[in-house]
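Hi L.,

You mentioned the student needs an example of a multi-chain input paired with its predicted structure. This one should do, with 576 residues in total across all chains.
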Amino acid sequence: MLESIPKAESGAEARAARVIDISRLSLTFETSDGPVEALSGIDLSIERGEFVSLIGPSGCGKTTLLRVIADLETPTSGKVIINGLTPSEARLERAYGYVFQAPALYPWRTIARNIALPLEIMGFSKEERKERVQRNLDLVNLSGFERRFPWQLSGGMQQRASIARALAFDPDLLLMDEPFGALDEIVRDKLNEQLLQLWNKTRKTVVFVTHSIPEAVFLSTRIVVMSPRPGRIHDVIECGFARDRTLEVRETRQFLEIANRVRHGLREGHSYVD
Amino acid sequence: MSTERGAPRLLQRLSAGNAFPIFVVVFFILIIWYVAAFFMNLDLQRDAFANADQAYSTSDLVEGTMSQDRPRLPAPHQIAAEIDKTVFELSPSSKRSLVYHGAVTLEATLLGFAIGSALGMLLAVMIVHAASLERSLMPWIIASQTIPIIALAPMIVVIMNQFDVTGIVPKATISAYLSFFPVTVGMVKGLRSPDPLQLDLMRTYSATRFQTFFKLRAPASVPFLFASLKVAVAASLVGAVVAEMTKSEDGGFGARLLAGSYYGQTIQIWAALFAAAFCAAMLVMLVGMVDRAVSKRMGYVR
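Structure written out for the whole complex:
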């Protein structure tokens, strides 16, 4: 079942508000076992300030879709527009910050110097780097750990440092690929709450890949349910929770209803029999 | 964990440190060495007694085999005495002083090590950045190490002599020839060690190749580089010693080994061997100390 997203009214205003516009996107990987259709007929547009989750079973192409947006993969066909630019132009413009599944901190750099890494590459002055590192450390509650090395921090703290690193150069768009996948439930809850506060505070646009239903429902303004073989969009679900919601929202009826709809969507899109 | 009794605790503490295991190994080597020296020098000693028409007891035999002038295998204490004489008693400027010869060898070793490491790193950087260079250079680099250095060394000396390059440079060249290889191999591995995620990160920043090299590949290669440098510094010394056997007029451990073998001075040979091994160990230790200091600064030491 293929469902295209209702497009916002065209016009200069709508276009300015649109951060990501994807139409008829397909991507086929050439492997030694023949071609694998990773993404097929993807239509998706994301407005400024949205928090969009891509959810689906493994192999549904959700990470690949994020990597296409980041210009880390090149689509076989279709059109991707980021801020009115092609993905590679947008990457050169440093339009987005990317958070990977693993923290990918450089082990020879202290936490502060890891966060300063993009700033060094982008040529920020020393004072500016110092100020931004401190500000983003505060933002992810890691003040006081600037001189530690990554191995001296817990997994959750490392992932927070990697979020601070992605935010350091203040991109409007944040691409997050299962950033909390490797963390335990309690840490994940806490980080979800912090991420939501961060999003509410900074008004950034977030595209967030996950395979956790509660995480997706709690964080998102919109949930994109994907199904595998080939990877496509199965359903798009709006969540209308208040921007400053807390974890308690998970006990509400509305939350459970949305979670159920996501669960059904996942089940329909994928047969677990094979 | 800790026992109440004193003796086992002492043993535990001794075996936990480095000194005790080394001491045990040295002790057994010395025993084997003395026994071997006795048997290897035995028939020489019997002949000597027979030639002198002298009656001898077993203790005479033992004593004799341990104090020959040119034994097949000198006893450890004979080598120790020779080292003591040539290192501590003779003036360092004497041509028979091992300190003098050691200085000559170390000079060539260090110059060769510097050239070899620089060349090795340069080759590695080139190989990592151009796939065509890997295909064109790597077979030659490997082939270069399959030629026995002992066969190549005289040729390098002769050819360089032809161009009026004499003195320390030909020796350092041979030393560099041996030491660049481990550095290249280790450094290539190190420069390629960043995982795809770490490389993707650089791509999301639109980092230049130059930035990716200095901010990611180079620092990631440091632990690999130091492991290679330890091998390379020892290889440099071997290269210098081999070069000195070809070019013995300048002195050095190699010249001592060569002179010793001309005149059957086995004690002198062994003394030079031990001195060379000691120097190599010191060099490796020195590189190791730099390694630890750098690793600590870079957060690799936990």
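You could point out the following to them. Chain B has two domains: 6-73, 98-297. Chain B has a mean pLDDT of 89.

Best wishes,
N.
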